[in-house]
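for the recovery benchmark. tokens below, seq after
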């Protein structure tokens, strides 16, 4: 974890704490425009809030180390130095403020397909300008469709806002940690569901502040969620195989595509059984070679 990553880990946590202290202000924002839901007022509020007073570590400035628990049970300590505390956010750019030059920088650093972010932090890293994108989610419910898997960066930062008539709650974290593992049957590019409570619960269970340390605990579900975002076709394939081998009585409302899978399996097996053992092996190799 480098200096910038340490700063972002602490800064997004601080942003969460300070936004939750301003629940009433957030409650007064408008999320409706011409009968359509919009996060425009929220984006503008966040821009003002960040640029006019929440651009440095303040509440979390006393943190001296970040302890990260690894998969093997070992804990790695990262010192929060004065250099880390000197990093600050110069600007919070709205989508229309992102210039073509900045777009090229952001696109070059993305492994997923580039799309213009909801918010982009322009950060002063010891005199050098760097950029970090933020995805913004807002909902009255809990589970909502996430972004297309082609656009998702599992380690990307998110601000998730859950609102009701009486209160607003804010959680920040990594995109990976708000995925709830639900993936609907895809009629186009899949959008794995994300959940406010998933992110909030992850933060409560795996991110703990103790005296002058911030502790990040390993999540054993990380690999499964990573796979959902990076190999969703493989995940679906294994789920469909389980459907075909499920010996339990059918549910009253069996999904239509489960029946379609059974019909496909029978039609495929009829064709496959007509092949000789040599032809079956050749066919397996043919299919494997066509997987992208």
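predicted aa per position
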């Amino acid at each position: 974890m480098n200096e910038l990553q340490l700063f972002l880990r602490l800064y997004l946590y601080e942003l969460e704490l300070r936004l939750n202290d301003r629940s009433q202000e957030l409650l007064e924002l408008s999320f409706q425009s011409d009968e359509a839901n919009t996060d425009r007022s929220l984006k503008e509020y966040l821009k003002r809030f960040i640029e006019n007073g929440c651009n440095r570590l303040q509440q979390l400035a006393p943190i001296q180390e970040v302890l990260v628990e690894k998969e093997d049970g070992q804990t790695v300590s990262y010192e929060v130095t004065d250099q880390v505390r000197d990093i600050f956010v110069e600007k919070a750019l709205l989508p229309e403020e992102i210039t073509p030059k900045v777009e090229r920088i952001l696109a070059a650093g993305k492994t997923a397909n580039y799309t213009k972010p909801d918010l982009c932090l322009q950060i002063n890293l010891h005199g050098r300008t760097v950029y970090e994108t933020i995805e913004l989610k807002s909902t009255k419910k809990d589970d909502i469709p996430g972004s297309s898997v082609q656009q998702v960066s599992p380690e990307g930062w998110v601000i998730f806002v859950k609102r009701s008539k009486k209160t607003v709650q804010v959680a920040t974290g990594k995109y990976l940690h708000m995925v709830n593992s639900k993936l609907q049957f895809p009629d186009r590019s899949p959008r794995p569901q994300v959940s406010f409570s998933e992110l909030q619960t992850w933060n409560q269970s795996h991110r703990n502040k103790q005296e002058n340390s911030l502790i990040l605990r390993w999540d054993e579900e990380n690999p499964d969620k990573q796979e959902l975002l990076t190999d969703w076709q493989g995940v679906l394939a294994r789920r469909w195989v389980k459907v075909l081998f499920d010996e339990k009585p059918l549910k009253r409302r069996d999904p239509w595509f489960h029946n379609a899978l059974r019909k496909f399996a029978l039609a495929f097996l009829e064709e496959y059984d007509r092949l000789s053992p040599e032809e079956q092996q050749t066919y397996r190799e043919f299919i494997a070679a066509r997987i992208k």
